[in-house]
Amino acid sequence: MKHKVSAVLAAGAATATAAIALGSPPNAAAIPPGPGVPPSGPCALHGITDDVAESADTPTGFARSSGVVRALTLFIDFPDARATMSPSARFAEFFPAVTDFFRTSSYGRLSYLPMPLFRWIRMSRPLAAYGIQRGTDFDAASGSGYHALAEEVVRVVDPIVNFRDYDVINIIAAPNAGPPATRTVLSVTFSGGDMGMRTADGVPFRNTSFIWSRQAGLSAFRVLNHENAHSFGLPDLYYADERRAPPPVGHWDPMDEDWGPSNDFVGWHKWKLGWFSADQVHCAPRHGTPGEHTLTPISTPGGTKIVVMPTSPHTALVVEARARGLLDPAVCRPGVLVYRVATDVPSGRGPLRIVDATPHSGGCYPNDEYVDSELTDAAFRPGQSYTDPSGASVTVLTENQDGTYRVRVTPARA
To answer: DSSP class of residue 227?
Structure first.
């Protein structure tokens, strides 16, 4: 029996690999200018180390975010919410799209390989018995919640799966289990630190995403890109306390809005994930001299991607170019994006905030229910400038014929 189920897992991986190969978008594997490297230097700001955060250095315990990443992908349903579709059909809602997204966004530096076990794992209790709600934690002392759910899943697959072979785990529920995502988003990731649970292989159970329901709007698969990015160390950019406030980032990064039209990661996140080569990041340390830089849009492989201006030991002003691209089809005002990064601000509290070049404009998509429109036209155009309270400033000089932007930056005084 062990051999038989292992063969199913291998066959599932082969099927997934074939689907991914067939689903590759054109030019998605453009040759990057050099190997990606972890952030380093005076602009690689330190900060929070015990959770997902904007700190340039991602602590140990999180999953690798470049090279080959293997994702054990499992499917669960419940006695009172039995799956009404095949696990392969549920899998197809996410793949090959998730893999293509990561490959394109990383300029080919992340090869994401889902390894599915194509069977529904039936939980022993009705869904309500686990007490799964938004914000439910992974409490090893509890008889319910995600710990209880994970214990059952691991108990089933431990005899047939070597958890050492995988970097992340996806547990995807039948879409009829729990409320629709338009009412409550339950999908969650437990990443990084020890969760108080180990598999029979002696591997800590972590870097696991639980995916519920179906996301609304176009490219709904990106909920999995968002959740897996937590396993890579990225924080939530939206306000997790549900305060009534405009979104801090909006549709410029899927760690804020991962519904509606596709959107790429901001450059700071790509640097943190190791998707830039060293020469693609320009550092303008405090008390430095003004300088000019040519920025290539995030959607285009090669070229300088970000200029970082530290404004304190834990904050920086970052500039990058954004234009319409495969992952940025909704960019309605191409130009230079300016944002503040705070590496000491927790996830869900606004650790990254876009500077709006056109405040109170209403944005480009005021009637799109899946887009918070105000920030959609936030990019700065030639002739526009911004000065931070620290004295750091950026002026967009020109938009060049090749789509690049020339900017002048002045480092922070403080």
So the answer is: H
| Burial call 120-138: b when 16+ CB within 10 Å, e when fewer | bbebeeebeebebeeebeb
CB 209 within 8 A of CB 152: no
Give the H/E segment covering residue 230.
Answer: helix 222-231
Map tokens 């406030």 to a residue.
245
pTM attached to this predicted model: 0.92
> Which burial class, exposed, middle or buried, applies to 166 when counting CB atoms under 10 A from its CB (0-12, 13-18, 19+)?
buried
| pLDDT in 10s for each residue of the chain, 414 residues | 333 344 345 445 444 443 333 233 323 334 455 778 999 999 999 999 999 999 999 999 999 999 999 999 999 999 999 999 999 999 999 999 999 999 999 999 999 999 999 999 999 999 999 999 998 989 888 888 999 999 999 999 999 999 999 999 999 999 999 888 888 889 999 999 888 899 999 999 999 999 999 987 778 999 999 999 999 999 999 999 878 888 999 999 999 999 888 999 999 999 999 999 999 999 999 999 999 999 999 999 999 999 999 999 999 999 999 999 999 998 999 999 999 999 999 999 999 999 999 999 999 988 888 888 999 999 999 999 999 999 999 999 999 999 999 999 999 986
Looking only at Cα atoms, what is the longest distance across the chain?
69
Q: How far apart are CA 111 and CA 152, in angstroms?
A: 30
Cα 186 from chain centre: 16
Residue type present at position 40: S
Contact 279, 303 (CB under 8 A): no
Beta strands in 206-334 (DSSP E): 208-211, 281-283, 291-295, 306-312, 315-322
Token reading at 323: 């234009």
Residue 196 and residue 234 in contact, taking contact as beta carbons nearer than 8 Å: no
